[in-house]
TrEMBL record:
<feature type="signal peptide">
    <location>
        <begin position="1"/>
        <end position="24"/>
    </location>
</feature>
<protein>
    <recommendedName>
        <fullName>DUF2147 domain-containing protein</fullName>
    </recommendedName>
</protein>
<dbReference type="InterPro" id="IPR019223">
    <property type="entry name" value="DUF2147"/>
</dbReference>
<dbReference type="Pfam" id="PF09917">
    <property type="entry name" value="DUF2147"/>
</dbReference>
<keyword id="KW-0732">Signal</keyword>
<feature type="domain" description="DUF2147">
    <location>
        <begin position="30"/>
        <end position="130"/>
    </location>
</feature>
């Protein structure tokens, strides 16, 4: 067997796989803690969905601790795409109680993420923190 071809192919395959893995690790994947409203907050897990990135509520909390909230298990962030520099656009954030959604921009900087959504002239900016 001629191994001269195998070594370059193995090197190319390894580089291609490592490049793909680096591209897939966008800094957004993992679990993030939302901002707190009236003592309520949630954990949102980001990961791939239909070739883009989505966020699903995995745990919900109230002022007295963990609760079985109505948003538990719901996808609230949909269709995000990396645009470079730790920024993500093109998706939407959805209110689980009403189904209403708004265009969304995310910016990851280490263990914090700036979440910006606007509906018409009204905008809301929050800071979410990485849990894991």
């Amino acid at each position: 067997m001629n191994t001269h071809f195998l070594k370059p192919l193995a090197t190319v395959a390894a580089l291609a796989l490592s490049g793909g893995a680096a591209h897939a690790d966008t800094g957004l994947s993992g679990t993030w803690r939302t901002a707190t409203y009236n003592g309520d907050y949630a954990f949102v897990r980001f990961g791939p969905c239909s070739g883009k990135i989505c966020g699903v509520v995995t745990r919900t909390f109230g002022p007295d601790g963990e609760i079985e909230g109505g948003s538990l298990g719901k996808t609230i962030v949909i269709n995000m795409e990396p645009v470079g520099g730790g920024q993500f656009e093109g998706g939407r954030i959805r209110r689980p109680d009403t189904g209403q959604s708004a265009p969304l921009k995310l910016k990851v900087n280490g263990g914090t993420m700036t979440v910006s959504a606007c509906l018409g002239p009204l905008c809301r900016n929050e800071t979410w923190n990485r849990v894991q």
